[in-house]
Amino acid sequence: MKKAILMLLAFTALFSCKENKKQEQPKQEKKEQVIAPVSNQAMESAVIYEANIRQYSPEGTFNAFTQDIPQLKELGVKVIWLMPIYPISMKNRKATGELSVEDIEDPKEREKYLGSYYAISDYTDVNPEFGNFEDFEKLVATAHENGMYVILDWVANHTGWDHKWIEENPDFYTQNEEGEVIDPINPDTGESWGWTDVADLNYDNKEVWTAMGDAMKFWVDEYDIDGFRADVAGEVPTEFWEEVVSEIEENKEVFMLAESEDKDLFHNAFDMGYNWEGHHIMNEMAQGKQTPKDWDAYMQKIDTTYQKDDYLMNFVTNHDENSWNGTVKERMGDASETMLALSYTLPGIPLIYSGQEYDMNKRLRFFEKDTIPKEKGKVWPLLEKLGQLKNENKALNGAKEAASYEKIETSEEEKVLAFKREKDGKKLIYIANISKKEISFNTELEGEFQDYLANENRNMVSEEEITLKAWEYLILVNK
């Protein structure tokens, strides 16, 4: 009997090892390029889509997302940003509140906590919940065939606690006085961020630079990835980013997005950063806490802060905002559409987050399985129109050769936001009532325009009174 039990245990262990074995990669063959390399010209008119594979569909797989990629063309999408697609650590995996999976005794209850995408156990593998390498390869190929670039979410600041480096290279990590690997520390307070499910990498060790760079090159060289969105980019030395991007681009141009507004990151490493401050002002204008005058002051500020060829990503939502700070409707209420249109008409590149296109009005669970709605409502057709405008009208060019941005004076500076974009003879005007009440005002704007969304002509006469309902906005283009 004892012998039988031992044999059963050995078989179970062998089966477990096979189950946990890194997924085998398909043999890579050099493929003919079906999409032009990343270029500034392509980015000028781009729209970015943030794909949350886990929550995008009931299946939560690469294949379920891939079948919808052709639809994203209808929204003008040119860049697909995939949230982390790598295996997730089990050790210290976050569950609910302050609990980790180790604190939950019920095995069935424990199974539902899938962990944070940002607690990575292997940088060069795919999460088996999403599919395999062949499924991922098909996703990238489908995107390229549809004229879209694919960038991966890259987490260079920390790994999950199951990563092999913890055992094999403990000197890759930040350690306390007792020599114990620690989670990331907030440099402003000297205390933990609370990211207890991850271990902080030590970039004083140049071997970390090499290992991390090799992992990034793997995806570009083997799977034809077009760039990266760098998580907490500012917490990693700028010199690392500059070095690894330079090495990658010896073979292929890539697009680099930093989760940061730090202007120093844009010199040689990143193409674009997050417009966090602008986003927060949008939220507060929608809530009546700030006004168009505050917005105008902000635009003047960034005009002097950044170099002419620096640009930012504009958004009304993303994975962090949705899960932790609330849905678009929760934060922006009746101003939601006004702010969405604003995000498209500003210099920079607009973002669509999974579910936003389907009027999603719920916070997606972050550590558990959830799913977005899939019924088209008011937002999809609006995104179609805004995407077409962004793709086709040079007045909305937003990258290194962006169209100009100029404030338009109105008689209601505290309540009306108005500006003009212009490039190569193309002009676009955005005018919005940033208040809860109907308002009448005048401007010095004059000329024949097309009301883009209403698809009708509009003659603007200087000093003529304009009336807009609460949160009503106009997008005017020259004829």
Number of domains: 1
Q: Portion of residues in helices?
A: 25-40%
Give, in spatial order, the strands making up the sheet with the most strands: 1-2-3-6-7-8-9-10
Q: Assign the CATH class.
A: Alpha Beta
CATH architecture, please? Alpha-Beta Barrel
Reported for the largest beta sheet, the result is: 8 strands, parallel, barrel
Number of alpha- plus pi-helical segments: 16
The Cα radius of gyration reads: 24 Å
β-strand number: 18
* Average of pLDDT: 94
Short summary of the structure?
With 479 residues, the chain is α/β, with parallel strands linked by helices. The protein has helices spanning 2-20, 40-44, 53-56, 62-66, 69-72, 107-111, 133-145, 164-168, 206-223, 238-248, 276-286, 292-305, 319-325, 328-332, 336-345, 379-392, and strands spanning 48-51, 79-82, 149-154, 158-160, 198-200, 227-230, 255-258, 272-274, 311-314, 349-353, 404-407, 416-423, 426-433, 439-441, 447-451, 456-460, 466-468, 473-478. It has one domain: Alpha-Beta Barrel (TIM Barrel), CATH 3.20.20.80.
Please explain how this structure is put together:
The chain is α/β, with parallel strands linked by helices. It has one domain: Glycosidases (TIM Barrel, Alpha-Beta Barrel), CATH 3.20.20.80. It has helices at 2-20, 40-44, 53-56, 62-66, 69-72, 107-111, 133-145, 164-168, 206-223, 238-248, 276-286, 292-305, 319-325, 328-332, 336-345, 379-392; strands spanning 48-51, 79-82, 149-154, 158-160, 198-200, 227-230, 255-258, 272-274, 311-314, 349-353, 404-407, 416-423, 426-433, 439-441, 447-451, 456-460, 466-468, 473-478. The strands form four sheets. An eight-stranded parallel beta barrel has the order 1-2-3-6-7-8-9-10. Strands 11-12-13-18-15-16 form a six-stranded antiparallel β-sheet. A two-stranded antiparallel sheet has the order 4-5. A hairpin with an 8-residue loop joins strand 11 and strand 12 (416-423). It is globular. The protein starts with a helix and ends with a strand. Mean pLDDT is 94; it is low at 1-20.
